[in-house]
Amino acid sequence: MNNETLLKNLRNVPDFPIPGIQFKDVSTLYKNPKCLKIMVNELYDLYKDKGITKVVGIESRGFVVGAALAYRLGAGFVMCRKPGKLPAETLQETYMKEYGKDTIEIHADAISEKDVVLIHDDLLATGGSMLAAYHLVKKFNPKQTFINFIIELSIEGLHGRSVFPEDAEITTLIKIE
Questions:
Q1: How far, in Å, CA of 22 to CA of 109, rounded?
Q2: Is 98 in the active site?
């Protein structure tokens, strides 16, 4: 889609979190009412006819647009969080990061087999956290699962889309190549 308003308002932060990384800061899109409206409206248009019953947002930037989209779709919102943040029984998925392991959790009663789930996060780079969330959601055996990002990076060896199964339906609002 690569909406020009979104691209113009996306902030690049050089050398964050480490030297050589060009960080794409979506907080500038969240704080701008016009950009936030564009993102939620474009996502709504993509998913309004898919029967989404739950939107899963990945901690923490996936909560912002994920919750707004769930409201707009008339769906429930599920938080996918780091260990120890959710108060009731959880299911976990551990995954490898560039510098070690990480784990995410979802409440054990958050999703049912009747649900159609959209998993949302801000950025696709290596795909690690979203792939873990995808595997976690699949443990619930929902009717269907969709994946969405605001930004997809396909630069300098970052091809996160390739880690997902071929049948995974993935959409992005901005693709940077």
A1: 38
A2: yes
A 10 A CB-CB count for 164 gives 16
List, in sequence order, every residue forming a beta bridge with 120; answer none if it has no partner: 57, 148
Does this model's pTM top 0.85? Answer: yes
Q: Which of the residues 98, 113, 166, 177 is marked catalytic?
A: 98
CA–CA separation, 8 and 149 (whole Å): 18
**76-101 tens-digit pLDDT:** 999 999 999 999 999 999 998 767 79
CB 136 within 8 A of CB 91: yes
Active site annotation includes 81 = no
DSSP string, 125-164: SS-HHHHHHHHHHHTT--SEEEEEEEEEE--TT--GGGGS
Residues facing residue 148 across a β-bridge = 120, 171
Phi, psi of 33, deg, nearest 5: -55, -35
Helix (H) or strand (E) holding 85, with range, is none
